[in-house]
User: Fold DUF6457 domain-containing protein from Nonomuraea roseoviolacea subsp. carminata.
Amino acid sequence: MNVLNEWTALACKELGVDPARVDRDLILELTKEVAHGVARPAAPLTAYLLGLAQGAGTAPEDAVARLTALARDWGQGAAPTLTGD
Assistant:
């Protein structure tokens, strides 16, 4: 078992999360998009926000798709802003 698999399994066990619900590759792809398109520190923050959204009832696939699109748009300078600037 590699380190990432072992960490995922142990973290899931610690938090009472079914590891079958964790799409590790999808999360890694999302955080890669955010790290490269927005900023490195935004990647773990985005993963945390994704967890909050899922806990609030947002479908994970929908949330990942929306966040990935937002990060790609950000990297192209086309993302919306809160101030509208």
